[in-house]
């Protein structure tokens, strides 16, 4: 098992289409268990379709639950006890309790954890803009509390804080006996089993960070992703002093040690919209979430109408006639209704954080009508600990992940992919990245 002294994340950093999942399947199959081999795999992936793909091509089993009331979590525990290779979604991982961790740490089998796509390890708890229907169970519990709850718990001694680090602790020596919000606070208390909580700005913001102890349950931890450097997970590793060992996919389709600079295929097919009629303004912070709050409070606002017309214009005229195979677009969820209407279907909107899906692989027109900045509370949290968040790299990575949901990921397709990025800052950065990528491939 890992310990605090030797934990290292094995990161397979390679672009979409490099064969990361195929290589992982190959690795699992190559480690078919002999009678005296106690090494096993637990694979986490964002989508059910990928769970089914991995299970179909390996001996991994999926915790399904049943009609008799057996939960997926209960079945997961039974599979661990039985020493099966397991594949499930990230969502099930958020339900891991102390019993799961004990089975992984003290059971008869040593599990290697494989995570497809960067895991979420840091959360903003008191964020008015955080959706209340998020999948993460602990974030659901934390979002039920407001700043007044934290103030009361602190004032009455239920919640303690390290004045130097800002870390919050539940006072196990004091039991909350009040009737009001008792169930809420009990759910909150349980969150400390898996999360470290930190107060910033006198509890006006509370940041939750995944406890390092979860990683100690595994013999090895692999993360399959692209552009992990300067991500939240990269900063998390710096925060706790964890080592990152980089891997790549070699020419034989196997996982090989070492970082190799790689770019996705199909870059010459990308056509960026440079028409000033659609790229409206060049202020660096235009189309940030705060810009939308100030300028697009409703779809009748001047900015919303102007932006809708520009998006509609791109979709109608920005792609050569007859060459569109389908489109999808995004903006911040809270403001998508401001931009929908004639020529812009809400059914073609997808969340800007969409990853790991082939659902839009036939679409060759992509509109990214926003500019994604890192959460300012998380930026403050890292900054106070000497870690600087690279805002430009954060935005660029988010956009690249989004663009590669389109037909650009279909390497057998020759169609051009038409891209609309009205945010000047992001458009210039992506053009620079694209130029560097093309030069790299020439070399």
Would you write up a description of this structure?
The chain is an alpha/beta fold. It has helices at 20-30, 48-57, 72-82, 90-93, 98-106, 137-142, 147-155, 182-191, 232-240, 289-295, 302-317, 336-339, 376-383, 391-403, 424-442; strands at residues 8-13, 39-45, 86-89, 110-116, 122-124, 159-161, 167-170, 195-200, 205-210, 220-225, 243-249, 255-257, 270-272, 327-330, 365-368, 417-420. The chain has a 7-stranded mixed sheet, sandwiched between helices. Strands 5-9-8-7-6 form a 5-stranded antiparallel sheet, sandwiched between helices. A hairpin with a 5-residue loop joins strand 11 (243-249) and strand 12. Helix 3 packs parallel to helix 5. The two termini are 42 Å apart. The mean pLDDT is 87.
How would the blueprint of this fold be written?
Layout: E1 8-13, H1 20-30, E2 39-45, H2 48-57, H3 72-82, E3 86-89, H4 90-93, H5 98-106, E4 110-116, E5 122-124, H6 137-142, H7 147-155, E6 159-161, E7 167-170, H8 182-191, E8 195-200, E9 205-210, E10 220-225, H9 232-240, E11 243-249, E12 255-257, E13 270-272, H10 289-295, H11 302-317, E14 327-330, H12 336-339, E15 365-368, H13 376-383, H14 391-403, E16 417-420, H15 424-442
Parallel strand pairs: 1-10, 1-11, 2-3, 2-4, 4-10, 13-16, 14-15, 15-16
Antiparallel strand pairs: 5-9, 6-7, 7-8, 8-9, 11-12
Helix pairs in contact: 3-5
Largest sheet: number of strands, sense, barrel closure: 7 strands, mixed
Percent range for helical residues? 25-40%
Beta content:
15-25%
Radius of gyration: 23 Å
Q: Which structural class best describes the helix and strand composition?
A: alpha/beta
| N/C terminus separation | 42 Å
Describe the global form. Answer: globular
Strand order of the largest sheet: 3-2-4-10-1-11-12
Mean pLDDT: 87
Number of discrete helical segments:
15
Low-confidence runs: none
| Strands, count | 16
């Amino acid at each position: 098992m890992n310990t605090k002294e030797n934990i290292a994340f094995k990161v397979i950093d390679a672009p979409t289409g490099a064969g990361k999942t195929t290589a992982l399947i190959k690795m699992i199959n190559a480690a078919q268990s002999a009678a005296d081999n106690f090494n096993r795999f637990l694979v986490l992936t964002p989508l059910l379709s990928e769970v089914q793909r991995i299970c179909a091509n390996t001996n991994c089993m999926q915790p399904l639950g049943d009609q008799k009331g057996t939960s997926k979590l209960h079945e997961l525990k039974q599979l661990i006890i039985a020493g099966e290779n397991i594949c499930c979604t990230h969502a099930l991982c958020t339900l891991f309790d102390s019993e799961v961790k004990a089975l992984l740490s003290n059971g008869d089998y040593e599990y290697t954890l494989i995570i497809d796509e960067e895991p979420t390890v840091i959360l903003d708890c008191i964020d008015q803009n955080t959706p209340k229907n998020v999948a993460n169970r602990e974030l659901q519990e934390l979002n039920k509390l407001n700043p007044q709850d934290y103030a009361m718990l602190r004032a009455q001694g239920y919640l303690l804080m390290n004045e130097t680090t800002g870390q919050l602790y539940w006072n196990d020596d004091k039991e909350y006996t009040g009737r009001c919000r008792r169930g809420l606070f009990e759910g909150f208390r349980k969150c400390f089993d898996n999360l470290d909580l930190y107060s910033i700005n006198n509890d006006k913001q509370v940041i939750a960070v995944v406890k390092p102890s979860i990683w100690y349950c595994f013999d090895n931890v692999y993360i399959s992703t692209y552009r992990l450097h300067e991500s939240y997970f990269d900063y998390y590793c710096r925060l706790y002093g964890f080592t990152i060992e980089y891997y790549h996919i070699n020419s034989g389709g196997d996982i090989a040690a070492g970082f190799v600079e790689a770019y996705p295929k199909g870059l010459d097919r990308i056509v960026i919209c440079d028409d000033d009629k659609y790229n409206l303004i060049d202020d660096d912070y235009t189309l940030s979430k705060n810009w939308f709050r100030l300028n697009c409070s409703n779809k009748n606002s001047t900015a919303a109408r102007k932006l809708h017309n520009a998006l509609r214009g791109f979709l109608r005229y920005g792609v050569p006639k007859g060459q569109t195979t389908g489109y999808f677009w995004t903006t911040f969820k809270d403001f998508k209704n401001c931009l929908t209407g004639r020529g812009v279907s809400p059914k073609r909107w997808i969340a800007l954080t969409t990853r790991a899906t082939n659902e839009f692989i036939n679409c060759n027109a992509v509109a990214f009508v926003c500019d994604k900045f890192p959460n300012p509370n998380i930026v403050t949290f890292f900054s106070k600990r000497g870690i600087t968040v690279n805002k430009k790299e954060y935005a660029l990575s988010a956009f690249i992940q989004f663009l590669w949901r389109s037909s650009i990921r279909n390497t057998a397709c020759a169609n051009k992919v038409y891209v609309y990025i009205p945010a000047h800052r992001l458009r210039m950065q992506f053009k620079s990245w694209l130029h560097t990528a093309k030069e790299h491939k020439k070399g």
